[in-house]
């Protein structure tokens, strides 16, 4: 079963296009049951393993866990993070730039 990346309805079309263009193997849905949910709101919020905050930040170990949860490579998650303006802090391995 393909892991789902869920998002608020206003983000859905752009997210679906991005995932398809980048060849990232996740399904995109507006349902709340995604492995990771993309949310908008005030920038600068810390992301969790199950919630990606647009314009926020994420610690490297959490980003690696998120990539694992989605079943994608760290670099693929890095492209998603860049797309949503999420900064990686405390990167251990140099996987995220």
Explained architecture:
- The protein is built from three helices and six strands.
- With 97 residues, it is of the alpha/beta class.
- The chain has one domain.
- The strands form two sheets. It has a four-stranded parallel beta sheet with strand order 2-1-3-4. The protein has a two-stranded parallel sheet with strand order 5-6.
- Helix 2 crosses helix 3 (74-83).
Ranges where pLDDT stays below 50 over 5 or more residues in a row are none
Query: Helical percent range?
Result: 25-40%
Structural class: alpha/beta
Biggest sheet overview: 4 strands, parallel
Rg over C-alpha atoms, rounded to the nearest angstrom: 12 Å
Shape: globular
Q: What fraction of residues sit in β-strands?
A: 15-25%
Note the gap between the termini. Answer: 29 Å
In total, the number of strands is: 6
From N to C, what is the helix and strand string? Answer: EHEEEEHHE
Total separate domains: 1
In spatial order, strands of the major sheet run 2-1-3-4
Mean pLDDT: 89
In DSSP terms (H or I, runs of 4 or more residues), the helix count works out at: 3
Top keywords for this entry?
6 strands, single chain, two-stranded parallel sheet, four-stranded parallel β-sheet, 97 residues, 3 helices, alpha/beta
How would the blueprint of this fold be written?
Blueprint: E1 4-7, H1 12-22, E2 27-29, E3 36-39, E4 51-53, E5 57-59, H2 60-70, H3 74-83, E6 87-89
Parallel strand pairs: 1-2, 1-3, 3-4, 5-6
């Amino acid at each position: 079963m393909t892991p789902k990346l869920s998002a608020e309805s206003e983000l859905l079309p752009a997210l679906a296009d991005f995932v398809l263009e980048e060849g990232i193997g996740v399904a995109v849905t507006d349902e709340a049951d995604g492995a990771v949910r993309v949310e908008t709101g005030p920038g600068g919020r810390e992301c969790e393993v199950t919630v990606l905050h647009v314009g926020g930040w994420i610690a490297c170990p959490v980003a690696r866990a998120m990539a694992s949860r989605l079943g994608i490579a760290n670099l693929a998650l890095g492209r998603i993070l860049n797309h949503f303006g999420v900064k990686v802090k405390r990167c251990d391995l140099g996987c995220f730039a």
